[in-house]
Design goal:
- This protein is an alpha+beta fold.
- It has 2 domains: 3-52 and 271-403, no CATH class; 81-258, no CATH class.
- Helix content is 56%, strand content 18%.
- The protein has helices spanning 3-15, 18-56, 85-94, 128-133, 145-149, 159-166, 209-217, 235-249, 265-308, 310-318, 323-359, 368-394, 398-403; strands spanning 60-65, 69-70, 73-74, 98-113, 116-125, 137-140, 154-157, 175-178, 181-189, 204-208, 224-229, 260-264.
- The chain has a 6-stranded mixed barrel.
- The chain is elongated.
- The two termini are 27 Å apart.
Amino acid sequence: MTPLALFGLGLQALTRNRMRSALTTLGIVIGVAAVIATLAIGEGAREQVQAQIRALGANTLFVFPGTQTAGGARGGMGSITTMTPEDAVAVRTECPAVDAVAPMVRTTAQVVAGNTNWSTAVQGTSPEFTTIRQWSVDEGVFFTDSDVRGAAKVAVLGAEVAAQLFGTTDPVGLTVRIKDIPFRVAGVLARKGGSGMGGNNDDVILVPITTAQHRLLGITYIQNMLVSAVSESEVPNAVTQITELLHQRHRIHAGEPDDFIIRTQLEAAQTAEQTSKTMTLLLSSIAAVSLIVGGLGIMNIMLVSVTERTREIGIRRAIGARRSDILLQFLAEAAFLSFAGGMMGVVLGVATARIVSQVAHWSTHVAPESILLAFGFATAVGLFFGFYPARRASGLDPVEALRYE
């Protein structure tokens, strides 16, 4: 018997019980859709994180104060306050692998403009910040080195802050009050978008670091440094040079713990990549359980079908059908169930990924590899779980099958 004839017989048998066949494929449909949607969300999240990291620059480093232990209590990162603006100047001038340095301090404040107010992050920094972050100014200008030296009361607003405080009005030249201190708006940053982990890059106000230190926080130290290496290949050299310089400046001897921590964007990218892969694999494995359940459903229904069609199998064997013909017919039925479920699952999975992207505003990416993986796995599951019922059907004794009622 030709494969086409076997396929036709299998399809005819399945259409006798359309509802049962449809319910049997449901497990495969849900499993394939879950795998594709999960992989799409995971891949979209990975690409979004990588894009945000690339936006900061692969040659960007962060230098944070370290931890300290007092009275047996260990403080968190930044509990040491030994990092100073002079350290930032020294790193910029004495480390050949470093291109630019922006010292940073940060606080949160309720900002007032006229009758409107908004709670936001206020960061003190230097003009090098825009170069390192590759962040341009849409309106007005950024503050200058002379503003930093004079601790000028000028501010550059993030796009979100400008929209919340001034709406469609141009804020350049107007005044905002930060902790009851008036600041003249010098400019508005270009819109940057999300910062990952639910943050918003545009919800920030930048002021000269000296102004933030003296007028807003009352401190003389800095909370971290944003550093740019001359190139991505020079990042390891920059880390070594900064480490050696801070050892000298902070009088840290060999064997003593550092009072600072250096993080690079390459480390962040590798960590984000590994985390994304782990989470995607975990979620996909959970989703794949649905495919196994769907395969068990196919086995169950095929066993029921073998029992119901025992007399039919006996008649076919009696008129000349071989064991291989019976085996292939039932395998064809199992393959068709898994194939149909896989096709519907692909459509449902792609649609689910697009709905999630539009409704939840998550980045999703349906890769062709994920479709092939889910569809191929679904087909393999169907054939695997369909083989035993098919083998059982082909092994029936024709005489006993004919006697079956």
